[in-house]
């Protein structure tokens, strides 16, 4: 054995040992926590826990969980080896295929939760050839979706995952959106980049190649009411997930700093962000702007006690902003749907309306520097970024991208930084309208962590470690 070989085998075996020790420690920590709280352990059984019920305030255990997820993946990838990792990565779409079949044929709905079904019965219920339904379901089983009853060949029962595909409507819509609306489209992303290599247009994406039309993603959905409904439910489920709560936005110091000020929620949908903010800040008044069909009838859905402080206005943000005296213009989950070209246009459409010192608060994702977050969290953000590319030619942005976006829109926008509470997946990106050059990054709302210094990566890491400062 050469020295090089023996050194590399020592270092790789020591990494394997480190990982297995970490895995054992974190598993013990989590198991102890679940025991102390009187909670069961997760299991694949149909009535098993479908997620670890770790309370938000138990940050140490949350951290242990993410470390365990990362360490198990790293250990697995190392043991599988680069060659086989690549080989099998290249056919991962077959996981999507079997999941798609389970969703499409509503297999989870074909038999009761406490019951069983044979492949012969399943074939009849789905109007499929038995051999086909069996191979699709057996593939899904390798992902713990259904399992065969011990000692009863060709008979299947539910697992925790198949129970969710039966009971959790939001998750079903999520699976449907990704396996039906987006899967085929995703495969056309590289062809779209080949065809329109520098495009920032939302009509020049994988979607138009897949369908051979010029409709945008939202026009596509608009013409398919069932798909639109499914998209809406899937998005609601995603944004109601952990780390996306509007309460985190409400913690931002800017709201307290504007006293009895006025906030315009641009593209604010039916006003749910403003409802949370209005409850937290009784002095604030809100104008929620969105497309006419969205705001139509929305006022009636606002809790009565808040109606005098939240008004709705139909407004297309690709045209000039009509509300001229606001203290804050909020853009929650708007810019990641738009390429830089359009994001700049949207910002410029506000210039005529901005008074000196007016704040722009963007509540959106911020792409991390590689390696700052856990791989698990990083992959989530990078996946959203790819979906934006595939569907609308838009993007998630790093802190520097946000800074240059404001600068490109107009140098009189002063970028103040980006901050987020530790548990939040959404950031508050802050800028101020500064026509006379009076503001600097030190003028971020007090308490907001600056994310734009050379120490940004360290600051991001500190956020993850220590929470909001
Ligand atoms: C991803 S949703 C975000 C909604 C809301 N801000 C939130 O936090 O959930 C994007 C919103 O932008 C709205 N929108 C899209 N194009 C628009 C336009 N040109 N003018 C105004 N609103 C628009 C959509 O109707 C939708 O409500």
Mean pLDDT: 91
Give the terminus-to-terminus CA distance.
Answer: 52 Å
Q: Which strands sit side by side, in order, in the main sheet?
A: 6-5-4-7-8-10-9
Which sheet architecture does the biggest sheet show?
A: 7 strands, mixed
Radius of gyration, whole Å: 25 Å
Report the uncertain regions: 1-9, 449-469
**Ligands, deduplicated:** S-adenosylmethionine
Q: Based on Cα principal axes, name the global outline.
A: globular
Structural class: alpha/beta
Counting DSSP E segments of at least 2 residues, the number of strands comes to 10
N-to-C SSE series? HHHEHHEEHHHHHHHHEHEHEEHEHHEEH
Helix content: 40-55%
Share of β-strand residues = 5-15%
Counting DSSP H or I runs of 4 or more residues, the number of helices is 19
Features:
disordered C terminus; disordered N terminus; 19 helices; 469 residues; 3-stranded antiparallel sheet; 7-stranded mixed sheet; 49% helix; binds S-adenosylmethionine; alpha/beta; 10 strands
Give the arrangement of secondary structure elements.
Elements: H1 3-36, H2 59-89, H3 93-104, E1 116-118, H4 119-126, H5 130-141, E2 147-148, E3 155-157, H6 160-167, H7 169-186, H8 189-195, H9 206-211, H10 217-222, H11 225-239, H12 246-250, H13 253-257, E4 262-266, H14 272-280, E5 285-290, H15 292-295, E6 310-314, E7 328-332, H16 340-348, E8 359-364, H17 375-392, H18 399-409, E9 413-419, E10 427-433, H19 456-466
Parallel strand pairs: 4-5, 4-7, 5-6, 7-8
Antiparallel strand pairs: 1-3, 2-3, 8-10, 9-10
Bound molecules: S-adenosylmethionine (SAM).
Residues 267-269, 273, 290-291, 294, 316-318, 332-334, 337 line the site of S-adenosylmethionine.
């Amino acid at each position: 054995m050469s020295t090089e070989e023996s050194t590399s085998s020592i270092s790789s075996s020591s990494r394997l040992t480190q990982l297995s020790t970490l895995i054992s420690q974190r598993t013990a920590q989590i198991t102890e926590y679940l025991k102390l709280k009187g909670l069961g352990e997760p299991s694949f059984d149909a009535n098993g826990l479908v997620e670890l019920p770790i309370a938000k305030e138990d940050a140490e255990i949350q951290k242990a969980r993410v470390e365990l997820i990362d360490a198990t993946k790293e250990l697995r990838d190392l043991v599988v080896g680069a060659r086989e990792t690549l080989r099998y990565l290249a056919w991962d779409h077959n996981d999507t295929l079997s999941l798609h079949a389970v969703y499409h044929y509503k297999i989870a709905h074909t038999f009761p939760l406490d019951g069983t079904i044979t492949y012969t019965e399943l074939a009849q219920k789905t109007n499929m050839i038995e051999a086909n339904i069996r191979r699709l379901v057996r593939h899904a089983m390798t992902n713990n979706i259904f399992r065969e009853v011990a000692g009863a060949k060709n008979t299947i029962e539910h697992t925790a995952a198949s129970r969710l595909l039966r009971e959790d409507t939001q998750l079903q819509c999520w699976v449907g959106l990704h396996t039906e609306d987006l899967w085929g489209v995703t495969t056309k992303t590289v062809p779209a980049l080949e065809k329109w290599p520098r495009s920032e247009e939302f009509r020049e994406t994988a979607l138009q190649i897949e369908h051979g039309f010029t409709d945008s993603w939202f026009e596509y959905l608009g013409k398919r009411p069932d798909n639109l409904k499914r998209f809406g439910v899937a998005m609601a489920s995603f944004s109601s997930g952990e780390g996306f709560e509007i309460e985190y936005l409400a913690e931002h110091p800017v709201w307290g700093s504007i006293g009895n000020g006025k906030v315009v929620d641009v593209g604010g949908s039916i006003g749910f962000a403003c409802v949370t903010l209005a409850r937290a800040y009784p002095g604030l008044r809100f104008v929620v702007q969105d497309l006419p069909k969205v705001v139509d009838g929305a006022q009636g859905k606002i809790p009565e006690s808040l109606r005098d402080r939240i008004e709705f206005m139909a407004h297309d943000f690709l045209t000039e902003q009509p509300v001229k005296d606001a203290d804050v213009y909020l853009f929650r989950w708007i810019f990641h749907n738009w390429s830089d070209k359009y994001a700049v246009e949207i910002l410029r459409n506000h210039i005529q309306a901005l008074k000196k010192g007016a704040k722009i608060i963007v509540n959106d994702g911020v792409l991390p520097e590689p390696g700052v977050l856990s791989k698990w969290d990083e992959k989530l953000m990078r996946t959203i970024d790819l979906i934006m590319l595939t569907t609308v030619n838009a993007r998630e942005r790093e802190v520097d991208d946000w800074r240059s976006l404001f600068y490109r829109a107009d140098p009189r926008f002063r970028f103040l930084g980006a901050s987020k509470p530790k548990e939040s997946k959404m950031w508050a990106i802050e800028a101020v309208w500064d026509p006379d050059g009076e503001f600097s990054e030190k003028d971020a709302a007090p308490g907001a962590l600056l994310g734009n210094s050379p120490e940004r990566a360290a600051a991001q890491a500190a956020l993850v470690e220590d929470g909001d400062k």
